[in-house]
UniProtKB/TrEMBL annotation:
Example of a GO MF term: sequence-specific DNA binding
Record keywords: DNA-binding, Transcription, Transcription regulation
Flavoprotein recorded as keyword: no
Protein name, per record: HTH araC/xylS-type domain-containing protein
Keyword Coiled coil on entry: no
Lineage, opening ranks: Bacteria, Pseudomonadati, Pseudomonadota, Gammaproteobacteria, Oceanospirillales
Domain HTH araC/xylS-type: residue ranges: 6-104
SUPFAM superfamilies in the record: Homeodomain-like
Length: 279
């Protein structure tokens, strides 16, 4: 049952901008609407509708705080049919209006920029279209998982065929607290196009097509600094280069150096924050 409700949770996230309802989800998974509501709440503690509202506002927090999209655009991107409905929902959850939240977050970043002493080498680059085989992990809820630094050794990856396990580990971090662990994350490996056509992908893995994107990148061997690195990018590095994030979730890619013979954890991790715009 949990694998099906995981699929439901992912579907809700992927359909935030649409008005598709629980009946559409039930039809997709082959359940009745009442079964979806009952089983989903058993797994995630909320009804599907309440969970989707939470995801929408979670995304709104990122877009308000770190992009220059208008509040009207953000409301639409988060699945609200009008600005008023979005503002009411945001105020009800966070006890502050979207406009006031944006102002306070920009003030916070300005103070961070003024007081910042630690900087990190970074680059802005472009990634071509890629593919990944991933599964969804949860930090809270029915299947609490380990911290980010332990994910490349996660036992779930052992279910992948040998040909895939040798790929570059990737984690896509969902939720608001990018630098403080994760609430939801997609864990897996990057693969070449066509590789999965030859292999049986075990449940609960799925194949993702990752479109081309621009990103800001920092490489580190200390994930304990992840929060500081993200603050540096958001508060200082990106504004200095007239860049801002797209609102897509950050990605972590684990790298092995050529001289490393051990199959344990790779030497370094590359953080990628997707940026707005194209080359």
């Amino acid at each position: 049952m949990f694998n099906d409700m995981m699929r439901a949770e992912i579907w809700l996230q992927e359909k935030l901008e649409t008005q598709q309802g629980i009946e559409d989800l039930a039809q997709r998974l082959g359940y009745s609407s009442s079964q979806i509501r009952r089983n989903f709440k058993r797994c995630f503690g909320l009804s599907p509708s309440a969970y989707r509202d939470q995801l929408r506002l979670e995304r709104a927090v990122q877009l308000l705080g770190h992009t220059y999209f208008s509040i009207y655009e953000i409301a639409s991107q988060c699945g609200y049919q009008n600005h008023s409905a979005f503002s009411r929902a945001f105020l009800r959850r966070y006890h502050i209006s979207p406009r006031e939240f944006r102002r306070s977050e920009r003030q916070r970043l300005s103070l961070l920029r003024h007081d910042m002493t630690q900087e990190y080498p970074f680059r802005i680059d472009h990634a071509q279209r890629q593919h990944a085989v991933v599964t969804r992990l949860y930090q809270h809820g029915p299947k609490r998982e380990s911290n980010i630094e332990n994910l490349p050794e996660h036992e779930t990856l052992q279910a992948l065929p040998d040909k895939l396990r040798n790929g570059c580990p990737i984690v896509i971090i969902h939720g608001n607290h990018w630098g403080e662990g994760f609430s939801r994350a997609d864990l897996g490996v990057q693969v070449d196009e066509g590789v999965t056509d030859e292999l049986a992908i075990p449940l609960p893995f799925r194949t993702l097509s990752l479109p081309a994107y621009r990103y800001a990148s920092v490489v580190t061997d200390n994930l304990g600094e992840l929060g500081s690195i993200i603050d540096f990018l958001l508060a200082k590095a990106l504004p200095q280069h007239d860049e801002f994030v797209s609102g897509l979730p950050p990605r972590l890619l684990w790298r092995k150096t050529k001289h490393r013979k051990s199959h344990k954890s790779p030497d370094s991790v590359e953080l990628r924050l997707p940026l707005y715009g194209s080359d």
